[in-house]
Amino acid sequence: MSVVEQLDTVLITGASTGIGATYADRFAQRGHPLVLVARNIAKLEELAARLAREYHVKTHVLAADLTVPAERAKVEQRLRDDETIGILVNNAGMGGGSVLAQTPPDAVQAMIELNVTAPSRLVAALLPRLIARGQGSIINIASVLAIAPELFGGAYAASKSYVLTYTMALHKQVVEQGIRVQCVLPGVTRTDIWEQTGGLDAIPAHMIMEVDEMVDAALSGYDQGEVITIPSLPDVDEWNRFDEARRRMAPELSRDVAADRYKSDIPEDA
Ligand SMILES: NC(=O)c1ccc[n+]([C@@H]2O[C@H](COP(=O)([O-])OP(=O)(O)OC[C@H]3O[C@@H](n4cnc5c(N)ncnc54)[C@H](OP(=O)(O)O)[C@@H]3O)[C@@H](O)[C@H]2O)c1
Is Oxidoreductase among this UniProt entry's keywords (predicted)? Predict the structure, then answer.
């Protein structure tokens, strides 16, 4: 008798459209059952029905606004309780706060709730169970703005730097326990997110990636075991050199003396 192994269920946030919906399609194609999370229940149900029909996988929808603590708690509960969930894709995100002086405090907070607080809380809810079973994956969607905040994005770029640093710290803590972690840094990708900032017309076509291409590249990086995936970057050594420069500084970053340039007793002609 052949035993068919049940693949892990994948919970994807922001699955109603764009990058999240494309991840849902690709994981369903690979045979994974899905839990799809977003606010728009009609879109989620339509996608869930299509994926179940096309790929013969179980699909569930969970409507939640991840900026609202009581609704976010439903997703956290699901991650804690549903033993079939072994992969989390923290994808839901919003722009905002690009021009810092023109961003109302409540708008900055809502963005941080979605881009920073939600993925952190969802990981905190899921991680103990993944560690107990010694297996599982967490994919966090950041942005290239995490390493290039001057390009665009103000508080949004900063929220994505958090996702990058958080994922690096997470990787260090769980890699020995069988947990796979990946941070994806997309460049400009053609999705509805750009409607919030007036569309993609002002951006040169050679800088815009189609969403299928972006997600397929990110999943290729996942399959290759990458921790950091930058779908656009032609030469991965560019990232490796950047990361190496950062690591080289590490031994000097905390010392019992200040650097000479901050000492007032240095002679002027020194
Ligand atoms: N597109 C790009 O150029 C680009 C580049 C770099 C990084 N990213 C990142 O990629 C991720 C996905 O972006 P996208 O381009 O696919 O954006 P999108 O097309 O606007 O989709 C965003 C998704 O998040 C959901 N969402 C928004 N607010 C939510 C909330 N409060 N609670 C729960 N779900 C919410 C939306 O569904 P509902 O409206 O149904 O809730 C939707 O499913 C984001 O983290 C984004 O920052 C995108």
Answer: yes
Does 140 score more than 80 pLDDT?
yes
Residue 95: strand, helix, or coil: coil
The Cβ of residue 213 has, within 10 Å, a number of other Cβ atoms equal to 14
Residue ranges with strand state E in 67-202? 85-90, 136-141, 179-184
Annotated active-site residue 156? The verdict is yes
74 included as an active-site residue = no
Give pLDDT tens digits for 73-94. Answer: 999 999 999 999 999 999 999 9
Tally of CA atoms within 13 A in the half-sphere of 241 that contains its CB: 5
pLDDT for 266 equals 57
Give the lowest-confidence range in 18-32, 95-109, 209-223.
95-109
DSSP label of 252: G
Protein residue with least CA distance to atom 24, ligand 1: 14
Contacts of 154 (CB under 8 A, 6+ apart): 97, 98, 99, 100, 103
Pairing of strands 136-141, 179-184: parallel
- C-alpha distances (whole Å) from 38 to each of 18, 41, 100, 265 are 12, 7, 27, 59
- What is the fold, at CATH topology level, of the domain defined by 9-262? Rossmann fold (3.40.50)
Does residue 145 line the site of ligand 1, with CB under 6 A?
no
Q: Which amino acid is at 253?
A: L
pLDDT surpasses 90 at 3: no
How far apart, in whole angstroms, are the C-alpha atoms of residue 5 and residue 21?
25
Tell the residue nearest (CA) to atom 43 of ligand 1. Answer: 14
> Which residue in the list 23, 74, 156, 263 is annotated as catalytic?
156
Show Cβ contacts of residue 83 under 8 Å, excluding neighbours closer than 6 positions. Answer: 129
Return the amino acid letter for 30.
R
For the chain, what are the domain ranges? 9-262
Candidates 216, 165, 119; CA nearest to 157 is: 165
